[in-house]
Amino acid sequence: MMNVLDIRGLTKKFDDFVAVDNISLTIREGEIFGFLGANGAGKSTTINMVSSLLRPTSGEIRILDKDIMKQSRFAKLNLGIVPQDLAIYEDMTAYENVSFFAGLYGLRGSQLKERTLEALEFVGLSDKAKSFPKNFSGGMKRRLNIACAIAHKPKLIIMDEPTVGIDPQSRNYILTSVRKLNESGCTIIYTSHYMEEVEEICSRIAIVDHGKIIAEGTKEQLKSTITDVKNIRIELKSAIGAEGEKLKSIPGVRTVHQEENIIHVHSDAAVDNLNRILKQLMEDDKEIRSVEEQEPNLETVFLTLTGRNLRD
Amino acid sequence: MNILSIALKEIKQDFRDRRTLLFLLVFPIVLMLILGLALTNAFSSDVSIGDLKVVVKDATGGGELSQAFTTFTKEVGKTGVVFESLQPGENGREEVENNRYTDYVELTNQGISVYGSSRDPIGSNIVQGMLASFTDKYNAAAAVARIEPAKTEMVFAGGKQDYIKELSVDPDRTPGSIDYYALAMTVMVAMWAAMPAGGLIQREIGRGTAVRLVTAPVRKSEIFIGKILGGIVTNLLCVIVIILFSKYVFKAYWGSHMGIVLVVLVSEVVMAMSLGLAGGYLLKGAASRGIISLVVQLMSFFGGAYFPIGNDSGGGFMGFLVNLSPIRWANRGLTQVIYGNDVSAAWPVVGINIGFAALFLGASMIMMRRREGL
Amino acid sequence: MELWTVGNKTILLLFVVIASYFTAVTADPWLVLFFLMYLALNLVLHIVTKNTAKKAIILAIILYLIGCAIYHPYFTLLLPSSCYELASFYTRKKGLLLAIVLLPVLFLRDTMMILYVFIAVLSFFNYVMIRHYMGRVNKQEDEIEQMRKDMQKLAKSLNDNQDFARASAYMVKLEERNRLTQEIHDGIGHAMTGALIQMEAAKRLLNSDPPTAETLLQNAIGISKEAIEEIRITLKSNKPPVEQLGLSRLKTAVEAFGGKTGLMTSVVHEGNMEIITPLQWKIIYENVTEALTNSAKYSGASTVHVELRVLNRLIKVVVSDNGKGSMKIVKGLGLIGMEERTAAVNGTVIADGTNGFSVTTLIPYGNE
């Protein structure tokens, strides 16, 4: 598989302050790559260097195996940026906005028109093509912001907090769009404050803190850096006290501990055995009142590794 | 191509911005009307040809030139221009400097030299224009005389007409207040191009769209040139609308060299844009707009956009300030073109403007290259 | 700096000389005298070394110029540079200075005024720029000097450390050898000697008294067995468990540090310490020590907390204090050293100054 983005030893200093500290990273084709980090962790600086808004102090960035400094046109043609702050012209219609930016990527004439309409259609703004963004809701503006980045069909799309401050409906729409874009062959870099979003859509995640990548991998891998245990809490309607014993033989289960009608099961997080546990209980004709599976989530991973909450 | 689409986008945005239109079109026109009506008296009496006094020193000791010149003075004298001979012991140039005469004309066998007063530019221009016209005629006559002496008379006979008409200066036509303000406002609006230019790049940054422009496969210079081009077109369109409006609605006088007038104005718009751009780069941030508009307003004020200030004598601190204003240069150049019929007066102005434009543009280019982002 | 001002003043003087003396229709010998006086005063200025003397002379020059200015206005043009010279000893308020220098404008007319303003502003600009650059040059020289010192110090301490490390490693080895020798001598040596004697006796009695010989041999076998057991015990007791070594060493070091600096310290550990390899222990130990030193030096903290957690695939060590922290972290040698050490085992170091100061070392372990 091709590496869509290759970062080697990337560093950015602002005077004495090291904003990005020797980051190396590879993103392969077809991934949705999540960047997690608090404000000022170096996410945006990294992204700005990839999108050639900032010059790296040192290090190398390659997009589709071409150095972005040496072959900047190629890199830029294959890159779509959805900036964190809205980057649209309020005094131009949605159509004009998309068309103008797509035009900068060399699209002309009927092709330009086609792609513009396609992009607007994609974000569900076809019927608003002739309207001015002044009259748009926050979510619609965000969607237009995305449309402006995709009309030229880039291979790599960078989305910097695309869901900041919008209603849940638009948010879902955007998440669905991200998935659709990914399915259509785009590789996506996604940054967000919202752990759940990242956990939901990203295939691989890097946690960035103080300009460094402190952990990287699939969400399972990230979680397993912290612990390999999950806790399952099962509440039965009534119990005699020995229901838990049989569960110990189920693969992955490490310990079982029972307090009256509540059973606590510690199990390997990597083994998917909840169904078998429940099946076992049901075979024994136990009525289950509630089940709770406590797996470590990204929030806990982040908290454990950095000692801080993401939204501090 | 990218340059064009960026320019087009700029123009589109500018014309959708009602404030721009209000600022660049309605405001100058209204101001022209108000000032033109309110200050009518400040003008017509001031510059009337009746006041033109020219002192002449004839060093040819008679001869053809001298004769022809006498005919000319008689002819022109009817329109109220008074020619007086230089008294022995008087210094012609000093007389002009002391403002006793508008011009000092010296006839020698080598030709005619004119020392104009800078205190009364319009009067001086008129005299110079008439003299230029006279010399043309005289030269023609001299050429005819060399080939066919008999026909010399005819040249001058044909010339028994209003020299001033020939100059396209209507003797009844003095620059009235509307004429003055039509010109002054137009020049001022051209200079105002500097104000939006200061925010040209800043605006993109403020909207966040700078990010998109920089990440698009477009060279920075293309963005830059496209935006300037758009700005120039917008401002020029405004300038043209104001000219047409003043010409046909207010019946302001624009002379007979519209093309040249436009060339001067184009050069001024370009210069103003570059000035604004360089200022915007140099001063960065929100303060830049304020400072640029302050500078432009000062230029407008000292350049005589609101009411004629001082005179061209260049004396004193005020004269110094006045002469610093590009609006003044353009005003003076254009006055000469329109009323003095002196096309050549336009070129130095155009030259200076283009020179400064190149300087400012160069400076902005260098700053732009150094900067990260836009 | 001096060369610049001298150059500026020379150019100015030349201008004034040309403007006042050579353009006048009749040569004025008084002017020549005044100019020479001015030159002489300036020469004196550059000869004296004491600052107070310099100031006095500059003041004299200024007064002299004012006097001369009454005779010929062009002398005012020489005023600004002297004023700036004087100002370079005192004020940093440039605006005020310019205002003062521009004061004479009130007494000047027409071209003189313009000329004076021009020269005053021009030399003001020069003065400001020179000061600016001189300030920079001085600062950079100081920095270079400081860096040179630092480098020497570092090189020296590097050498010292290496020597010390070598020496102490040797000492430890010697001690250890000594102790082992003693133990072998005390325990096994005696046992073996006992066994040997019994065996010798058994050999003699082998033919004459086989049953006694057998008893003796049995004794010797028993002693040898015990000796072997003792060897085993000795070896075992001499090979301490790594985690004990690492953790207790760390705790001791932190406590010793607390005792030395008066900071409250605490060490918390969680997880399976056994998986930490000696190399990782070494890095942890060094990072913690370094971080503690930093806390003591810069933070103004009263407590330092050390936390060591072994997670599923990661070892996390945090040294955090309750000091003033720092919003902007500038990497010093210490931090860079930690980073380099940690990078050797694929780990990272994060320094965070938002809430007190904390240094987190993350070291991955296990097979991924």
From TrEMBL, chain A:
Instruction: Please give the Pfam families that the UniProt record associates with this protein.
Output: ABC_tran, DrrA1-3_C
Keywords per UniProt: ATP-binding, Nucleotide-binding, Transport
Q: Name one GO molecular function term.
A: ATP binding
Name assigned to this protein: ATP-binding cassette domain-containing protein
**Does the UniProt entry include the keyword ATP-binding?**
yes
InterPro entries, A to Z:
AAA+_ATPase, ABC_transporter-like_ATP-bd, ABC_transporter-like_CS, DrrA1/2-like_C, P-loop_NTPase
Entry-linked PANTHER family: LINEARMYCIN RESISTANCE ATP-BINDING PROTEIN LNRL (PTHR43582)
**Domain ABC transporter positions:** 5-235
From TrEMBL, chain B:
Q: Tell me the superkingdom of the source.
A: Bacteria
GO molecular function terms noted in the UniProt entry: ABC-type transporter activity
What InterPro entries does the database record attribute to this sequence? ABC-2_transporter_component (IPR051449), ABC2_TM (IPR013525)
Keyword Mitochondrion part of the UniProt annotation: no
State which residue ranges cross the membrane: 21-43, 180-202, 223-246, 258-283, 290-309, 345-368
PANTHER family per record: LINEARMYCIN RESISTANCE PERMEASE PROTEIN LNRM, MEMBRANE COMPONENT OF ABC TRANSPORTER YHHJ-RELATED
- State the name under which the record lists this protein: ABC transporter permease
Q: What is this organism's lineage?
A: Bacteria, Bacillati, Bacillota, Bacilli, Bacillales
UniProtKB/TrEMBL annotation, chain C:
Per the database record, which ranges form the Signal transduction histidine kinase subgroup 3 dimerisation and phosphoacceptor domain? 176-242
Look up the coiled coil feature and give its residue ranges: 130-161
TM ranges: 7-24, 30-49, 56-75, 95-128
Question: Which top EC class is named for this enzyme in its record?
Answer: transferase
GO cellular component, as recorded: membrane
Reactions catalysed = ATP + protein L-histidine = ADP + protein N-phospho-L-histidine
EC no.? 2.7.13.3
> What keywords are annotated for this sequence in UniProt?
ATP-binding, Coiled coil, Kinase, Membrane, Nucleotide-binding, Phosphoprotein, Transferase, Transmembrane, Transmembrane helix, Two-component regulatory system
Q: What is this protein called?
A: histidine kinase
Q: Which organism is it from?
A: Paenibacillus dendrobii
